[in-house]
Design a protein that fits this description.
Elements: H1 2-8, H2 26-31, H3 46-57, H4 63-75, H5 84-102, H6 105-118, H7 122-145, H8 180-192, H9 199-211, H10 216-228
Helix pairs in contact: 3-4, 4-5, 4-6, 6-7, 6-9, 8-9
């Protein structure tokens, strides 16, 4: 894993005449639709190839979105051009409102991770790192969960829980009383409100996470509701709790 990680961090190279536009008019870029320059030719620089790859992914967005993504791509490497961090920060200082309205979650997460690596303050770096871990794990487990055959917004049935212990001997999570979901999200929200530049990105992402019905947090909430709901008889009418024994069955 370390070898693969180091290979992915090899610096992007420029061809003669190529460079990041450190003095760009960012407001103008925010108003300019992304132009497709077409695939790079044979022998193109790794920077040009990365630009084409990102531009293809960002079709319909702005030149500013592309520039932010290119800064992120360079800042993920072991070495990057002088001034890249300053350009990335200027983008978010001057054009945060435009990017928050335009960027999909993928690039908002990538932007936060970049603050985690290159933030100017400990608060920026801590928030960026925490949010990067949160959304990285969400991507991993939500991708694996699709192999269950269930749609993202479909909770598991309560009666099919396996009896196996959790990995590493970790204690189980209680649907009725567990607070891990709250303890994960609430401190992040509170911390994001106090961080000037990276905080607004985190708040937008947490809002989007809260609004999405296809996440573990929403599924757990629905499973809690089902568990707390009174059982029903054959006609669909709720059975009074007084008629149930301690195991939840008709007495």
């Amino acid at each position: 894993m370390i070898v693969r990680w180091r290979r992915r961090r090899v610096a992007l190279e420029f061809a003669p005449g190529e460079a990041l536009p450190f003095d760009a008019d960012l407001a103008a870029l925010a108003r300019t639709p992304l132009q497709d320059a077409g695939p790079p030719g044979a022998g193109a620089s790794s920077h040009a190839r990365k630009r084409h790859e990102i531009a293809r992914d960002m079709a319909g967005q702005s030149e500013l979105a592309l520039l932010n993504a290119l800064c992120i791509a360079h800042l993920r490497k072991r070495h990057f051009p002088d001034g890249t961090v300053a350009l990335f920060r200027r983008i978010w200082l001057e054009q945060a409102e435009a990017l928050l309205a335009e960027l999909p979650a993928r690039w908002l997460v990538s932007s936060l991770i970049t603050f985690g690596d290159h933030g100017a303050t400990e608060a920026e770096r801590r928030l960026g790192a925490q949010m990067g871990v949160l959304f990285g794990l969400i991507k991993l487990y939500e991708a694996e969960r699709l192999f269950s055959g269930l749609a993202p917004d479909e909770p598991f049935r309560l009666g099919r829980r396996a009896k196996a212990p959790l990995p590493l001997g970790l204690p189980g999570f209680s649907l009725a009383k567990g607070g891990l979901d709250v303890n994960l999200l609430a401190p992040l929200w509170a911390e994001a409100q106090a961080v000037p530049m990276a905080g607004p990105i985190a708040l937008v992402l947490l809002d989007r996470l809260n609004a999405d019905a296809g996440t573990i947090f929403r599924r757990i909430a629905r499973m809690r509701e089902r568990q707390a709901a009174p059982p029903k008889d054959a006609s669909g009418a709720a059975i009074p709790r007084a008629n149930l024994d301690p195991a939840g069955k008709l007495s």
